[in-house]
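User: I'm curious whether this sequence folds into something compact or stays loose and floppy. Could you predict its structure so I can see for myself?
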Amino acid sequence: VVTVEEHFISGGLGTIISELITTNFIEKTKLLGIGLPNKFLKSGTYEQLLKRYNLTAEGIANNIYSELKKL
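Assistant: Here's the prediction. I'll summarize afterward.
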């Protein structure tokens, strides 16, 4: 399961899905949460932030591809 969020990873959709996976004992499920790291971030325009934190279409695709290669 892959979630992509334009905000911090914690407390978002990925967190909700993670909770559903664990409370329903769904086994053999991997979760990749893509979003902003949970730390103080540098400021910038919307486009600059997307690029900086790999939240562009290309960055997201590369991140997913990298994780799939590990399987």
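Summary: Residues 3 and 33 are 5 Å apart (CA to CA). The first strand starts at residue 2 and ends at 8.
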